[in-house]
Write a structure and sequence with these properties.
mainly alpha, 3 helices
Length: about 120
């Protein structure tokens, strides 16, 4: 009966293929799936934040001038809502612009992923 090595045609010469030992425990994960892709810059959201920031700043300045009396007004009870609306529009614009600025500078803890994107 012929030996097994002569039947399969294998010989004792070394192959040019290099093998590596597999890890003892395979948990089904690979390192590539944990690498983060660079985040996409949400240009539309940053543009909206800039518009909100500018409109809010303008309304705050106008409201402050109305309250201080530098701009004459016939109904002084309507000056406070201008200031309140200005503050409500200014705050989200400033917040998102601050996140975008720090993310662009690479500060730890700030990312473009923190800004809501409208492309989804």
């Amino acid at each position: 009966m012929p030996s097994r090595s002569s039947v399969t045609g294998s010989s004792n010469h070394t192959s040019k293929v290099r093998y590596s030992k597999l890890p003892d425990s395979d948990d089904g994960y690979i390192d590539l799936q944990f690498k983060k892709t660079p985040p996409k810059v949400p240009y539309k959201a940053i543009a909206l934040a800039t518009v909100l920031f500018l409109i809010g700043s303008l309304l705050i300045v106008i409201g402050a001038l109305l309250l201080a009396g530098y701009i004459e007004v016939t109904h002084p009870d309507r000056t406070v809502p201008v200031l309140i609306i200005g503050i409500l529009v200014f705050l989200p614009g400033f917040y998102h612009l601050r996140i975008a600025y720090y993310a662009s500078r690479g500060y730890r803890g700030y990312s473009y992923e923190d800004i809501p994107d409208f492309d989804d």
